[in-house]
Design a protein that fits this description.
This protein is of the alpha/beta class. It contains 19 helices and 9 strands. Helix 4 packs antiparallel against helix 5, helix 5 packs antiparallel against helix 6 and helix 9 runs antiparallel to helix 10. The chain is globular and about 70 Å long. The relative contact order is 0.06.
């Protein structure tokens, strides 16, 4: 099947409509963009440009059913539009319907073999399914079309890493870094693959990582990786207080609110902080937190009044190497005895380590050293199966610390 030549710029719309569409998109005003498109589509129901903009606006607003409908309307007008099939595929990918998304990308590529986004996004979908060899093929095809495509180099490198092809992973990350020397993802992953020991990744690395994962985070973590840490930590707290209500809990690195949902009914006040705005938007829709703050955990602890009874970090310290500042801030800024509960990726060495996954692992002796330094008592430690990594489970350490009364 050959794609008919179609240039969106050829569609005739009043200049003020095109100008408004462009301005709202550039400004990131997607709610206003969706409302504008809904209004003008009444007068121009056969406009592919408007249906396309409406679909993209809905995707940004995480209204995936509406986005899918908009792209289907677009394809009803022109079923040979490769980008329409690619955009529809991206919408299915947003909700982790990877097989349907891949079929959409295949159609897009059949219509236009040079559709860069279709090749790249199909690589992402295959990578999410653990089909790394097929993903590598897609990313390489995207790079044939655009050799300076940094995101494709980074995802190609990560697929190589997951395949255990570490030399090729380093080469691909180096290529990304040479194109974009300020790329924090490439720099951090190169440090990890080279065995460098850093104190923590750049904030931008963590923020970008979780902003990207926000739409599919819970499916990926809970359904695919069999992650059940939040109920484990929730049960530990409930058992400690014998079913009574806790006054105040701070969920550090709250993400989409998985732990918050477990503890909400057992605390009077629940506050969450996270570095990812996209993750916080998902948490906000659940209406379980009394307050949510978009901030780095260290900055939050430095600036906020810490009147909480429980400080909880569920699957957070994997993205913080040196924990000394966080331990110090909680200990030094609280005037009462508090409980500090957290998990780590567990190792048996004496310190912490940056793994080639880009995450950090911590040992029990390292945590015990920090307890002595900053005045905590270790009251509970256990090793659990944290979540799946490739074909096996990672060991996780679960800790409960008590701060000493001044």
């Amino acid at each position: 099947m050959e794609s008919k030549s179609y240039n969106l710029a050829q569609e005739e719309l009043p200049r003020w409509i095109n100008t408004t569409l462009g301005e709202l998109t550039i400004q990131g005003k997607f709610l206003e963009l969706s409302e504008f498109c809904e209004q003008v589509i009444q007068e121009y129901p056969n406009s592919i440009i408007i249906w396309n903009n409406l679909g993209n606006a809905y995707r940004q607003l995480q209204k995936f059913a509406e986005a899918s409908n908009a792209f289907r309307k677009l394809l009803a007008l022109n079923p040979t539009l490769s980008d329409g099939h690619s955009n529809l595929g991206a919408t299915f990918q947003d909700i982790s319907a990877f097989n349907i998304a891949i079929e959409c990308y295949k159609t897009a590529i059949c219509l236009d073999s040079k559709n860069l986004n279709a090749h790249y996004n199909m690589g992402l979908a295959l990578k999410s399914q653990g089909k790394y060899r097929d993903a590598i093929i897609c990313f390489n095809r995207a790079l044939v079309l655009k050799n300076d495509f940094v995101e494709a180099h980074c995802n190609l490198a990560d697929a190589y890493r997951c395949e255990g092809r570490l030399a090729e992973a380093k080469e691909a990350f180096n290529k990304a870094f040479s194109i974009q020397p300020d790329n924090v993802f490439a720099k951090h992953m190169l440090d990890a693959l080279k065995g460098q020991k850093t104190k923590s990744p750049p904030d931008q690395f963590v923020e970008q990582l979780f902003d990207q994962y926000a739409p599919t985070f819970e499916y990926e973590l809970v359904e695919k990786l069999r992650y059940d840490l939040p109920p484990i930590l929730g049960e530990l707290i409930v058992n400690r207080v014998d079913g009574k209500v806790v006054d105040s809990v701070l969920d550090m690195g709250c993400g989409t609110g998985l732990f918050g949902a477990e503890i909400r009914s057992f605390c009077r006040t629940l506050e969450g902080v996270d570095i990812s705005k996209q993750m916080l938007q998902v948490a906000e829709h659940k209406n379980i937190y009394d307050k949510l703050t978009h901030k780095n955990i260290r900055d939050f602890l430095s600036e906020a009044e810490l009147n909480h009874d429980y400080f909880v970090a569920a699957d957070v310290f994997e993205y913080v190497g040196d924990l000394s500042e966080i331990f110090n801030l909680i200990s030094s800024k609280t005037q009462k005895r508090v409980t500090f509960i957290f998990s780590t990726e567990h190792i048996d060495t004496f310190d912490y380590r940056l793994e080639n996954t880009g995450r950090y692992s911590h040992s029990k002796p390292y945590i015990e050293k920090l307890c002595c330094e900053f005045g905590y008592t270790l009251s509970h430690f256990e090793i659990i199966k944290l979540r799946k990594e490739m074909h096996s489970f990672l060991d996780g350490g679960v800790y409960i610390l008590e701060s000493k009364v001044a």
